[in-house]
Design brief:
- The protein is an alpha+beta fold.
- It is built from two helices and four strands.
- Strands 1-2-3-4 form a four-stranded antiparallel beta sheet, with no helix packed on it.
- Helix 1 runs antiparallel to helix 2.
- It is rod-shaped and about 70 Å long.
Length: 100
């Protein structure tokens, strides 16, 4: 039995910083959208601007994540990322509680 699981680990500071940057940008877009009188153009403007901001934010957050691999075999668990690789034999685990 060999199973591989890949997870992305987010950097919480980057997420918080991106939220703090997004809020003023969204408020600025709303301020500009209020000046547009035609509701169709207003909708196009809001959707276009928010889509561009969301794509840029996604790329920034994705670049700051780390990919972690968990490989489960019959006798051991291997945890690896870009910088670290750890192999844990199941018989060496005393308690499966993560808060132990």
């Amino acid at each position: 039995m060999k199973k591989d699981i890949r997870l992305r680990v987010l950097n919480s500071r980057i997420i918080l910083l991106s939220i703090l940057v997004l809020v003023p940008l969204i408020l600025f877009i709303v301020f500009i959208a209020e000046k547009i009188t035609n509701t169709t153009n207003q909708t196009y403007f809001i959707i276009t601007c928010l889509s561009i901001i969301a794509i840029i934010n996604f790329l920034i957050v994705k670049k700051s994540t780390k990919l972690v691999n968990f490989s489960f075999s019959d006798s051991s668990l291997c945890i690896s990322s870009d910088t670290i690789s750890t192999k844990i034999i199941y018989s060496d685990i005393n308690n499966y509680n993560i808060y132990y």
